[in-house]
Every structure is written in C-alpha cells, then in structure tokens.
Amino acid sequence: MVDRIADPWGPRTPYGPGDRWPVRVDSFLADGHTEADVQRWVPSASILHSNGDAMDIAVVDDRIVGVRGRAGDRINHGRVDPKDLYGWQANHSPDRLRRPLVREGDRLVETDWDTAMGRIVARSKELLDGPGGWGHFGFYTSGQLFLEEYYTLGVIGKAGLGTPHMDGNTRLCTATAAAALKASFGTDGQPGSYTDVDHCDAIALWGHNVAETQTVLWMRMLDRRRGPNPPAMLAVDPRATPVAREADVHLALRNGTNLALLNGLLRELIRRGWYDEEYVRAHTVGFDELCKVVEDYPVAKVAEICDLPARQIEQAAELLGQSQRLLSTVLQGFYQSNQATAAACQVNNLHLIRGMIGRPGAGIYQMNGQPTAQNNRECGADGDLPGLRNWENPEHVAELARLWNVEVDTIPHWAPPTHAMQIFRYAEQGSIKLLWISATNPAVSLPDLARVRRILTKPELFLVVQDLFLTETAELADVVLPAATWGEKTGTFTSVDRTVHISDKAVDPPGEARPDLDIFLDYARRMDFRDSDGAPLIKWSDPESAFEAWQECSRGRPCDYTAITYERLRAGGIQWPCTEERPDGTERLYTDGVFNTDPDYCESYGHDLATGAELLPDEYRAKEPRGRAFLHATPYQPSPEVPSDDYPLLLTTGRTVYQFHTRTKTGRAPQLAHAAPEAWVELSPADAGPLGVGEGDLVRVESPRGAVRARARICGVRPGVVFLPFHYGYWDAAGPAGPGPGAAGGGRHDRAANELTVTAWDPVSKQPIFKVAAVRVVKEADSGGRPSPAPTVGGSAPPEGSGIPATVGGPAAEAPSRGE
Amino acid sequence: MHLSHYLGLLHKAQARLGDAFTEVGAAHRDEPDVFHTCGRLAAQCREHAEKLAPFARRYAEDAPAEPDRLHSELFSGTRSGGLGLLRDLQDLYLMAAECDICWTVVGQAAYGARDTDLLAVVKSCEQETAIQLKWLRTRMKQAAPQALVVAE
Questions:
Q1: A316 CA to centre of own chain
Q2: Complex-level ipTM
Q3: Which CDD domains does this UniProt record tie to the protein (chain A) (predicted)?
Q4: Contacting residues of A for B145, CB less than 8 Å apart
Q5: Which fold has domain B3-148?
Q6: Which of A132, A760, A761 has the CB atom closest to B150's CB atom?
Q7: pTM, entire model
Q8: A300 and A271 in one domain?
Q9: Distances (CA, A) of A813 to A2, A82, B137
Q10: Which of A174, A555, B32, B53 is the most buried (most CB within 10 A)?
Q11: Residue B62: its pLDDT value, please?
C-alpha cells in the first residue's frame, strides 16, 4: 500500500531508452471495498488534468466506490494521479446541486427544469429579436466538458444564434499552445506522442511543473531518469519545483523574460552550429529573419534581462544542442506569462532548426492544463471554428454551412471569435446581456476578481451557470442548472497527444441533475433552431449520435475522427487522425517534414507576434509555405506590469499537486482537501528576512488591485518573487476571512490569488498574464509556532531540516500499486 | 533638393502619431490590449522620429524654403465609449497611413539620392508602420460589429 498523499508519484519502475514503460496498476477503493466485490468496471479517463490517464470506474450497487488505472492503455500503463485516485468522491458530496435554481430578488430558490429553462429561453428570444441580437449572447465554457457537448454547443452558438462570443476557460490554460501550434505548423494538434519520453535523450521543461500538473507523465520521466542511459533534464521555472530539483540545469529566471531567454538560447545554438542546416532549408521558412532577431541576444545581455548566471545559460544551450532526441514540454510558466505566443513559438523554432520533430523521442508537447481543452479547440466552443477550420478562409466557412445546412453568413466569420476577456468586457459595457457559464468558475479563476465580481453582479446581465455545486460564480447567477459530471454521463475527450478516450456513464446523477449535453439539446429544442430547409438544426439526440455528427465535421481535417467508434474506444485510447487509411490512428505528425501550412488547408493566416495584427490571406500566400513550417521571431519586450518602488516584488501563481482548478471537486475529496487545505504564500529567505517574516507568519500580499492574506512558507522560490496557489476561492473559507455562504457580491475577499492579478493578455493567444504582477508583502501576525498550511510535497517543500511535519494522507489515503 | 521637406513632414507625422497613440491608449485604458499596444507603438513612433532627425538636419542644409500647406492636421483629441474607440482607432489609422506613404516617398528619394543609410532606416521603419496599420485594422474589424450593431 502506498500513501499517495505523502508520495504522489508512487513507486519507481525504471526502464531504458526504447524499452516499453513497465505497467504499474494503481487503484483506490473506499469504504473497505475490494476488487472482488466490484460489480462493474466502467471505462473512463481522467478529467482532473490534461494527461489523459485511462482508468476504470468501480461500481457497487449503482454507486461509484473507486477507480483503477487501465494497464493496457497507451498513456498511463495503469498509473493514476492522486487527484483521480481520490477526486471522484466529490461526486457523492451532500452539497451537489440536485434541482435547478432561479433568482427571486436576492435569493436563489429551487425550481423545476421547465421554469428554469423557460426563463433562459424567454430571455434569449427577447434578446435575439432584432438586428444584432446575436451580439447579446456570450458563452463561457470549460476544459472539462466532453467532445459531444462542445460540438453541440458550438453548433448552437455558431449556426443557431450566430454569435462569435464563445470561449472557454481553456483561454486561461491552453490558448497559447493552440496559437503557437497554428503559427508554427499551420494547424493546431500536437506533433508528438507520450511515447517520446521512452526514446528521448534530453527533456526540456519550459515553465512546466509537470510533477504537480501531470503526475503520471512525470512518473514516466522519472522512470527514465532512474533507468539506464537516462535523459538529461533542463527546467525553466522561477520556483524550486520537484522538476527543478530533479533537473541537471535549472534556470530560475525572472518571471516575464522567457522570450529573452529563448532568443539567447537560439542564438547560441545557431552560432555553435548546433542546428540541422538541411532540415532548415527543406522544411522551414524564415531562418534568416530568425537569425537577425536572435543576434541581438548575446548571453551576457540575456543573463542581465533574465537575472541568470551566464554560465547556466551556456550549460542549457549545451544540453539542448548536444541532444539527439530532444523532448520539450511547455506550460503555464510560458503560456500565462509575458509574450506567451512568441516564447512558445521559440520552443517550436528550437525543434525545427534542430530537425527534432516527427521521429521517436523528438517531441514537442505544447501542453494543456485542462483535460478536455483539446476538444474545446477542435469542436469550436472556444474561439475557433470546428475541425480546425480557418475563419478567414471562405471555403472552410462554406463547408460548415453545407454541413449544417445554414446560410454562410449566419456563421460568424467576419472577425476573429471573441476571446474570454473581451466577452467579459462586453458584459461590463452592457452589450452582452446573457452570459452562459458552464463547468467553470470565473469568479475565482479570472484575473482582477474585484472587477469580475462587479461584472457578474450587474443587474442587467442575465447570468446562467451550469455546474455541479453552488460555486462562487453560481452564487451570482440568475439561473443555476444542476449538471451531471464524469461517471454520470457518457462522452469522449482527447488528451494532449491526440489520444481519444471514452468515459462511459457508470451511475445516475443525483436528484434532477442532467448531463451537459442534455441541457444544451433541451435549449436547442426549446429555441426551435432550424436549418435552411426548416428541419431542426440539431439532428442528434444522444452522445453517440453527437459523436457521429462530429466525425462528419472532422472529415478531411487534421483532427479526422472518422474511423474512431465508441466501440473501439471502449478497448482503449486511439490517437487522431484516425481514418480508413490510418485505422490505428497516428502516433506522430509531420514525420515526413510536411506541415499543414498550405493556404487552403491551414487554420490561420498568421499574426504579428508582437501586436497580434492579423496578416492578410494574400500576404500568407506570398510566403509560399509549400508545406514548410514557419520560424517566427520577435524581440523581447518587458511585461505590461513590472515592479516599482510601491510594489517591489513579482507575483507568480500556480498549482499544487493536490488540487485542480478552483477545487470544485478536489476541495471536496477528503484526502486532497486535508493535504492542502488553505492558501499560502511562498517567499524566498532573501525577501522574508528583511520583511521580518518567518515560516507560518500571516502576511498580506497587495497589488494595485487587491490584497490576499495567507501564511508564509519560506522556501525555494527565486528572490524577488512571491508565489500564491490559484485554487483557493471562498466557498469553504472559514471564519471571518470569507464572505460566508450566500454572500454574493459582498464579504471579505482576501483569499484568491486572482484578487491581485492584472487584466492583460498575450496579443496573439489572448491568454491572460497571471504570472507577472507587481506586489508588496506586509507582515500581519506571528505564526505562534504554527507552520504555514503549504504542503511539504511539491514546489512548496520547505528546506531540509526545517522540522515542519511532512504532508501525509495516513490510512485513509492508502492505495495499492501493483506491477505486471 | 526638396527631400528635406518630406523628411520634415514624415518626422512630424511620426512624432504626432506617437503622441496620438499615447493619448488614445490613455483614453481607452479600460481596453487593456488597446492601452498596452498603443503604449508600445507610441514608443516605436518616437524611435522612428529619432532615426529620421539626423537625415532631416543633413538635408536641411541645401533645401529651399518650405512651401505652404505641406503639413496636415489629422488628430484633434480622443473620444470615449465603444463608438469613440472605433473613431479614435480610425484617426490613428489615417495618421499611420500618412506615415506609410511618406516612407514610400522618402524611400524613393533615398534611391534617387543614392543614400543607403537613409534607405536602411526607411526599410526597417516602414515595416513597423505597416504592422501598426495591420494592428489598427485588426482591432477595428474586431470591435466594429459589436460597437455599431449591438451596443445601445
């Protein structure tokens, strides 16, 4: 038995390059159940991070009692993240929403579905009636719905209402991954495969604390590191995360300077001849311009901008330049930071100039943080057209119009789809009057929360929230729709490496809660959306028929699902594209060095990375890409907010291994909640000393936008930088620090990291900048000998010998792990 | 040689565009992308003006008197609201377009004068002006339907 709270990564199973990653089956069954008394195992995969780990749900007497990793699945070989081992228990929480709620004055009261949907439909019809009616609607979804739900909502929004105002919280998490993939390779879609870990000889983690965000992927990396001929490892992160501690070279750079670092590293690689001239010539466009831009970034200058020792930058360049099979992974340290898309593109550039793409071990993971973010991008419930189509390509839009049998101009394609921050801005200005939020919690997860609360509580905004619980956002709604979740509904979703899994319904949802798909279908039916022939616009009625409709939409596009069936998925994950010609799916893209940059096929005609200015179709054609990838280059610019005399420190936010998103589920799983019950503040000893702050002291972190109170953990974050976990909102805040249940707009708000973050975003991906804000720290009270609630596992680990009791789960967290 | 007059025209147009970017950015602070991008582009315009200054001085030495009505006024202050944002961006667009065509004209003159130094400045700056135009166009395209058809 393993206490997977004390040891989130479990026992090692070392292996060598090219070997198969050994199987290790993790499971956790609660309430004294054993595998022998499980009546049904229902196929599923993780919905609490983006790794895509496959598992079976254990059912006894129509109740979920646990989970077990799927030994045969290509992604996890049986392993399960602790969030998944324990997180399912939240399904059973007594505070699940069981009936719809509607606002009566300042209260939400229970009602029936007819009343709740009736109010939404009445308001919708009222708003839709008149020119520009489409513009009053905004939809803000999630990275946790299923493919079928995104696709259905995408058709409702784009062909039913005709609104471009649709996005997901994937904008906060994965928009830059999509933007960088489109910019470099022509379309979205991850080039590599998780099996690249098995083959690589170097791993570079660019702002990616994979140990805490995707623990199973980290297990795979750790198992390679403990085996023969282990891969070298480079970590770029201002914090001493488990990844940074493991790495051979750790660049603890100043937040917001990623692009300067990458420009400098590329310059070193080019100057030292560590690039593949032939590959560059045959398969890329823009090398000369790249050389010209990075030439301005000699190591000494980069060392100064990033505040790093020059020698470390050279070591990193050597590690990258001398590898033969380099695997790169990129996540929020880049995506939620300054010049996000430009920096992520520089990682693509690094692989392109070294010819490190399309073969085993030479992979790039432009990661997702949210588990079903990839589907939101593919299916068009975020700011994209379904099937990775190009909104500027009239033929692509016409294809959709034919598929849906609607007028071309119904489909919004006159400008880029509205991104999340702009949707909230339109709501702030009053032109969006109905905002429908599903499966996400912007009242905790968006930047500058005081502003977000002002927007969501505007009396003239009709707010619909669809979720499992009365979240901080749902408390502010006019109508709350109780949704079913993972284990209570059927659907599919796709992991970072294009592996599609099915998650089958195991049990019924509580009370009158409904699958999100059923809710969207019900809305479409009540709105009576019609196609050009007067037939119902939505022609499907359940998950499988929705999936089949999506297959047709994906046909011939890079994410072609046409040979994937529900039946096949029940046997295990399959990577798209999967067609008659490629019935087993596709492990790696671009194996022939031919990219999706053909003007008639590509998903975007490109942007200027510094301003986000769109390039015109003719300009794109003039580049004559002919299947070659683009090398983009941009000079470094400081972040919109940098430290000042008043706010001398830099704030960065991030995750703990024990929580997901705003803890809607993980905060209700006892083992996870106990492991990381409260927010904390990380300070380096160099900053804590002069502030007179010791371990466990209560401090106030202030930015121009708000203040957060939490206890300090003195640990390995870089000097000048303050870290806050972003998971913590107010629904379970104890005592006077929280607004208490039912407090809508009022109450004290001093717990969520996003009280402090800045409203600013990357010009191309529109991803908010969470990782760079200027703050000051003030001590409020002594610890009284009590250490901070920060876990001793992960990035918040205290220095050795600190005497702080270790984070453990005890008997309640014991979970078996068994080998083959 | 009249080149100095066009250099002066472009120099002033760049300086005014820089100031206008700053003003429009500040007036629309609640649109953070507009605010931040305008700030960056204002700095870019001032750099352009600085790069032109030595050439303006050099060519002024053998220039006849400046003719009348060479300069035009394209910006007279900002507006507020969604419609105001569109109009302000449109002012910037016209000012940037004036710079853009001036770069073309000055570039042609640089060829004629066999001035490779001036030509190098033109070539680098006119690209940045072209991007400014594209950004303004992109942002206006995005804002127009909501501001003109949906907002009350």
A1: 27
A2: 0.95
A3: MopB_CT_Fdh-Nap-like, MopB_Nitrate-R-NapA-like
A4: 132, 135, 414-415
A5: Ferritin (1.20.1260)
A6: A132
A7: 0.96
A8: yes
A9: 8, 9, 57
A10: A174
A11: 77
